[in-house]
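Need tokens for this chain, all 270 residues.
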Amino acid sequence: MAYGKKISRAEPGLIVQVLDDSGSMSENLPGSSDPKYQWVERLYGNILQELLARSTDLKGNTAVVKARYILLHILYGTEPQIWGNGEMDIEATVKKYTEDGNSLGLGGNLSGTNAKAAFEEALVYLKKVVTQERIKKSFPPMLFHLSDGESATDATLVAEEIMKLSTEDGNVLIANVFIGTETKLNYNGPEDFPGYLDIAELGPNEDNIRLFNMSSETPACIRENLVNDGIFPNLREGARLFFDVRTKEMLKHAIQVVGSLGSRADRTGK
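Here are the structure tokens for all 270 residues:
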């Protein structure tokens, strides 16, 4: 069954973060007195700790971390920049994040918004990694893209190439999170967010449609995890992995999609 593999040290989960760090990320999140990038960093730290917990086993009284997750972080403005030491396992990622003051180095410090260049960087990496022995049979990699505005370039064709890549368990998944946009979909928050099924629900911003088209359909296993874990309890079958973020509550829940691909079943002991 596609998207059926459990995350393990032998067959780890791969997450590629593509994060907009253009100047507008220094503006306050709607309904908040803190900038968008600060909320991203604050909430993302919680996800890293969750992934670390899923990768930690107890042997007697000793905690043993097993590299069940691998991460790559691409920050972008006009040009993409790699955070940290490039590809890192979850333990190394948490260590680097903590040493850097619980920060990914975001700050709205980069000029321009060139999403295409960032996706091209991700494509080059993913083309290589999906053929590697440790990944080719694993749950497919997930690319998580977070942005708060219009890109100067269109990454649609590159995203389509990424979504054609696959492991033996299914195609690479792309999730898009758009901070601060408005759509035609009527909901109050994560508790009644139904997800987006078609373009008619997206307007009036054309970037909504572009990012929706760049988003994968939510696999049944991920939808089940998001519903059962109370992250998006009313997410509809067939909804895309596209999330519009109007408040910090929606941002918190959308970021949790990163950690949803294995859910509680990640603890395989391997």
